Amino acid sequence: NNHTAAQRWWRNLADELTPEQAQQSLTKFATGQDGRKREGRDGTTTAAAMFAAERLAPLPPTLFPVVVTEERIATRQAVIDWRGNRYSVPPELAATRVVVHQRLGVNTIDIATISGVVLARHQVAEPGLGVTIRDSGHVTALEAIALASAPPGRPHRKKERIPPGGDARAAAAALAGTPTPTTTVIDLAAYEQAAKNRNTLT
Length: 202
Hints:
The chain has six helices and nine strands. With 202 residues, the protein is of the alpha+beta class. Among the domains are: 2-53, no CATH class; 67-142, no CATH class. Strand 7 and strand 8 (118-123) form a beta hairpin.
């Protein structure tokens, strides 16, 4: 059948056919070949009769346990790229080579060291979204390392979390169409003075 298809069908296939039209043509050709008589060890038979006699076993109810394994190099921010998204790893794996395992039919990935020790597991996102998925434990450990390596003293102004000022609140209120919020500042100096030398609550 393969030889006949290559010699008779492929050589006579029109160049202007689309892939869908070519598939339909091949299916029609192959169906017509099922009834052709051919000589076998047991005499004259057909491809359809041979197929019926094979009694193929049904497909298994579950997917074959295939595990896709690929190597990646973690970035200095302790993330790896996988199918168009990024996933976090423990900070000690930053800039090192890791191995990603994903079993077919499962929506999780395991990230392991080269020696095979699994150190991270994530729910996979839809491929190609460009999202970054971080484990909360990885984030905490990474922040601790960053703070430990930071120089002493007051942080740079760009790294401080400064609350919005009056102009910013007024602009936000104008955009939202709401009255400008007012801020009441309470001086706690008087309370501090009254609390000095007090040992009881009465």
